[in-house]
Design a protein that fits this description.
This protein has 247 residues and is an alpha/beta fold. The chain contains seven helices and seven strands.
Length: 247
């Protein structure tokens, strides 16, 4: 029996990159998986198809992380399809980088709406349908710990807020046996930040290890562990996978 057999997971922003890798890994470990997308409908359908063709169950739900009602509807759709939510992965996020003077109030509001408020809304909605012993895992960033270059103020602040939320949630939900953790990826080879992209070499120079960019599956491996029964004593923690960029 796989470690997540009989469990139900909701992965926000699960149509591509790290989110897609997480959705596929949780499904491979036996979970029924719902994933949300905003614009990448075909990519989301492809992930669902890959999971179902491997014998799993999956559902793609359109949900804009900037709209609380969409997030709440995605939770409801997951429950309608699979009965409950055992694992919530807050992965959806946006990245807006610019000097402070070039950032608008709208940029601030959009960044915190998707990167922070959405995780709060999803967690609040999921708790009413999450059994005791559930798992909440939020995807932060190693940039929450250190901003190595200019222009990262909004993203860094939003991901630091995610880590703070997770710590507070862990304390609050501990009596129910619900664990809450953050995973901080560093440079990861995705379509948004490819290992052969224009800024890749600058990112490599920050790394203590010569392993280069992580593969999304490596981040998914950590999420899968935190979602599993083996991690029942891990809560309020932040796991960084960045080849020592913040060492």
């Amino acid at each position: 029996m796989s470690s997540l057999t009989g469990k139900v997971a909701l992965v926000t922003g699960g149509s591509r990159g790290i989110g897609a890798a997480i959705a596929k890994r949780l499904a491979a470990d036996g979970a029924d998986v719902a994933l949300t997308y905003v614009n990448a409908e075909k990519a989301a359908a492809s992930i669902v198809r890959a999971i179902t063709e491997s014998g799993g169950k999956a559902l793609a739900v359109h949900a804009d992380g900037a709209k609380p009602e969409d997030i709440e509807a995605a939770v409801s759709a997951t429950v309608d399809a699979f009965g409950r939510i055992d694992i919530l992965v807050n992965n959806a996020g946006i990245f807006r980088a610019a000097p402070i003077e070039a950032l608008s109030t709208a940029d601030f509001d959009a960044t915190f709406a998707v990167n922070v408020r959405a995780a709060f809304v999803a967690t609040r909605a999921a708790l009413s349908v999450m059994p005791d012993g559930g798992r909440i895992i939020s995807i932060g960033s190693n940039l929450a710990v250190r901003a190595p270059s200019p222009g990262l103020s909004l993203y860094t602040a939003s991901k630091a807020a995610i880590a703070g939320l997770s710590q507070a949630f862990a304390r609050e939900l501990g009596p129910r046996g619900i664990t809450v953790n953050t995973v901080h990826p560093g440079s990861t080879n995705t379509d948004m930040n490819p290992e052969d992209g224009p800024h890749a070499e600058d990112q490599r120079t920050l790394m203590a290890s010569n392993q280069g960019f992580a593969d999304p599956s490596e981040v998914a491996d950590i999420v899968a562990y935190l979602a599993s029964p083996a991690a029942r004593s891990v809560t309020g923690a932040a796991w960084t996978i960045d080849n020592g960029a913040n060492a």
